[in-house]
Amino acid sequence: MPRFTYRISASYSAKGHQFNPEYNLFNHNPFVRLTKKGGHKRPASGQDSFFVNQIGDTGAVAFGVADGVGGWVESGVDPADFAHGLCDYMAVAANGYPEGFAKGPLHPKDLLQIGYDNVTNDEAIFGGGSTACVAAAEPDGSVEVANLGDSGFIHLGLNAVRYFSPPQTHAFNTPYQMSKIPPLILAQMRLFGGSLKHSETPKDSAVTNHKVKHGDVLVFATDGVWDNLSPQDVLTIVGKNMTALGGWIDAREEFVVSPHLRNLTERGGLSKSENNTLQALIALAVTGEAKAASLNTRRDGPFAKEVQKYYPGENWHGGKPDDICVVVAIVVEDGRESKL
């Protein structure tokens, strides 16, 4: 049976800040693990967050993104605390597997539940809410994903879309979201009535299962990407970079995976800079294109088209500025590297 590893990088850009490819980048090292919450510097990703960590000693890896719900600012709550706390707790729980989990493989819905429970019990996180898209990728090529809200992911094969996750929404621009209500707001609700209109739990997440192949690419991202880039846009960006950098080869009749793919995903495989791995450059390319589209007042992205559909009188055009967070995983089969 073939065994796979997942070569992972993340890129991000906070709303209102210039995108800096040199600094807005994270390269996953499977030998460096997050073992406790707050054990690393918070990335400059605004109210968005991400995590990547090995799942115990199984050879599997967990990763995902979370998008803090900006509306909590009106209640005096920093939405970034919820999203970043959620990702930290999920990373730590994945590293500690199987402790705290049921027997069998780790399921991302369970990981999301543990992260949510820890955020709920963390007094340092006053309140907030978040969407999330979380994966558990196994060495046998099985990838299970739990998606709650309008973050999401795309599974790309050789220049083709294999799967694109549909968003979970109550209505236009109203995604499913996990929430933690501050004690004061809870007390006001008890006193004056009312309820939190939309508050889901990890149990409400949509779970899908996928089989990946050598050379496949997974792109997980917050809605700062999906509001500005279509699945076809992302395929074009990934395909262009995979072929230009040598990961995929256009062999006239069909695309094939390069015999040098493993080398390209390792530090120093593309250049002397350890940041220039194939997965890092693709993550940067998707983030950079989403950032440019979000600031383009003439290019109508998916969000603009949705506004035009539901609210034609708004005359909305162009992109939607937002925090952006992208995690890219390239699938590499053991034993498929070239004999250099």
TrEMBL record:
The keyword Translocase does not apply. Residues 31-331 form the PPM-type phosphatase domain. Its cofactor is Mn(2+); Mg(2+). Keywords: Hydrolase, Magnesium, Manganese, Metal-binding, Protein phosphatase. Its EC number is 3.1.3.16. InterPro entries: PPM-type-like_dom_sf (IPR036457), PPM-type_phosphatase-like_dom (IPR001932), PPTC7 (IPR039123). PROSITE patterns: PPM_2. It catalyses: O-phospho-L-seryl-[protein] + H2O = L-seryl-[protein] + phosphate; O-phospho-L-threonyl-[protein] + H2O = L-threonyl-[protein] + phosphate. One of its GO terms (molecular function) is protein serine/threonine phosphatase activity. PANTHER family: PROTEIN PHOSPHATASE 2C, PROTEIN PHOSPHATASE PTC7 HOMOLOG. Belongs to the PP2C family. This is Protein phosphatase. It comes from Lasiodiplodia hormozganensis.
